[in-house]
Design goal:
By secondary structure, the chain is α/β, with parallel strands linked by helices. It has 3 domains: 67 residues, no CATH class; 115 residues, Aspartate Aminotransferase, domain 1; 251 residues, Type I PLP-dependent aspartate aminotransferase-like (Major domain) (Aspartate Aminotransferase, domain 2, 3-Layer(aba) Sandwich). Helices cover 43% and strands 17% of the residues. The chain is built from 20 helices and 15 strands. The protein has a 7-stranded mixed β-sheet with strand order 2-10-9-8-7-3-6, with helices on both faces. Helix 4 packs across helix 5, helix 8 packs across helix 9 and helix 8 packs across helix 13.
């Protein structure tokens, strides 16, 4: 009884002759379409065998369903989005966007072969990190540096190279979780270093470090807790305290500053973010930071410091497992070159440019966009509203940045559904929902993306 309806399913050939699928074949790869039709029909047959009452669509309707299914299946999960959340370093959205110069550098080294590990003067093999070492030395004052895949990798490699089988002393209040449920103690455990916690959650003094030092101590570690804040009855040992102690006991001091600012972010209204240059100038032996946060470059972990320690780190076997590719190095080098002129960096690095945008400029854009949004048949109301943005990416969670948003109410009235439709639109737009409104935060949207906001809103359900 169940086999008879199966004979009513059109063949692959019949379906490919239908207008919907013919149009798709003209726009897409024929093999992809043919395989998609076969897979869809196989799934349909399996469903019909388990459900005798399942109706068979007519050939045209079936073809349209298959076209929709293939298009959804072929839509890449990794694609560009407009970040209108107001979180400038949104981890889920790839953190810092790259400068045009960095994108150009990636294209140039990716299109053809590149001098990744070859010295073009001598013709001999060289180190791939040579592409950025000179720049990092100029910008941070470090004697040497290496680059790995991210800052967690930098921590892992540094501790493995300097403290495997020995103790690393760190304040209990600095044992951070770095995102994705990964915690510093777990990273340290994988490095082979032995964690020696000192102090309490809210108070740690230099004497706590001094009393914990033994013949097993390999390093003193200070971690900048960028993704949380402890307030109230608190005390911490300063970097100067640890450097003085390290010099007295001949123990290296490692400073993990996290986000990796190369400029003073106080000029953007952001206080308290440590600078790599300051840590090295104070005397830290090794400084670790990210490339894709406040630096505004590609995802990577940068290790700078004294040559004697960097050489040990660079020669560790894990270095090969954690090394970066030519595209990352090209993007990082291009980004670092911009920092040789701080004013050029502020204009060219997208993160810095967004941070540096005056609120009055944001308000003017919001007023203009609100008028345009109000003309769309999918939007009931649109108006500019003052609000606050955040850096995000584990950076300074309590510091707010003044911003202006465009507040939208869709004609449908279903705000959460409209926000989901914006995420699924082409172009995709990530916004935030507050007080039954969709807020498009212009602090994290470049002016060149304003038209994309309009295009996405036009695709909302009107009823």
């Amino acid at each position: 009884m169940k086999s008879k309806p199966l004979r009513n399913i059109p063949s692959v050939h019949e379906l490919l002759e239908s207008p919907p699928l013919q149009n798709l074949v003209e726009r897409a790869n024929r093999n992809v379409v043919v395989n998609g039709v076969r897979t869809f029909l196989d799934n349909l047959r399996q469903e019909m065998q388990t459900s005798a009452d399942l109706p068979i669509p007519n050939p045209t309707e079936l073809a349209e369903r298959i076209v929709h299914w293939i298009q959804e299946d072929e839509t890449p999960s990794l694609r560009p989005v407009v970040n209108a959340t107001g979180i400038l370093l949104h981890t889920g959205l790839g953190r810092a966007p790259l400068a045009t110069e960095a994108l150009r550098a990636v294209q140039e080294v990716s299109r053809d072969y590149a001098s990744l590990e070859v010295d073009l003067t001598t013709g001999q093999r060289s180190q791939r990190v040579a592409a950025v070492t000179k720049l990092l030395k100029q910008l941070t004052g470090a004697e040497a540096s290496v680059v790995v895949n991210n800052n967690a990798g930098a921590t892992l490699l540094t501790l493995a190279a300097l403290a495997q089988g020995k103790e690393v002393i760190v304040a209990r209040g600095e044992l951070v979780e770095i995102g994705g449920s990964f915690r510093l103690p777990e990273v340290m455990e994988q490095s082979g270093a032995v964690l020696r916690e000192v102090g309490s959650t809210n108070k740690t003094r230099a004497t706590d470090y001094r009393n914990a030092i033994s013949e097993r101590t390999a390093a003193l570690l200070k971690v900048h807790p960028s993704n949380y804040v402890v307030t109230g009855f608190t005390e911490e040992a300063s970097l100067d305290d640890l450097i003085t102690l390290g010099r007295q006991r001949h123990i290296p001091v490692v400073h993990d500053i996290g986000s990796g600012a190369l400029l003073d972010f106080a000029q953007f209204g952001v206080e308290g973010e440590p600078l790599a240059t300051h840590s090295l100038r104070q005397g830290a032996d090794v400084v670790l930071f990210s490339g894709d946060k406040l630096l505004g470059g590609p995802q990577c972990g940068i290790i700078c410091g004294s040559r004697v320690y960097i050489d040990r780190i660079a020669s560790h076997p894990l270095m090969r497992a954690l090394r970066v590719d030519k595209m990352t190095l090209a993007a990082l080098a291009a980004t670092l070159r911009l920092y040789r002129d701080p004013q050029e960096a502020i204009q060219a690095v997208p993160l810095l440019r967004l941070l540096n945008t005056p609120v009055d400029n944001l308000r003017q854009r919001a007023e203009k966009l609100s008028i345009q949004f109000a003309t769309l048949p999918t939007i009931a109301t649109a108006k500019p509203v003052d609000d606050v943005s955040f850096l995000g990416g584990g950076s300074l969670p309590n510091q707010q940045l003044a911003t202006v948003c465009v507040a939208l109410v869709p004609v449908s009235g279903r705000v959460n559904q409209a926000a989901a439709e914006l995420r699924a639109a082409d172009p995709a737009v990530f916004a935030r929902v507050h007080n039954e409104q969709i807020l498009l935060d212009l602090r994290s949207v470049s002016p060149s993306e304003d038209q994309k906001l309009m295009e996405a809103a036009h695709q909302l359900t009107a009823g």
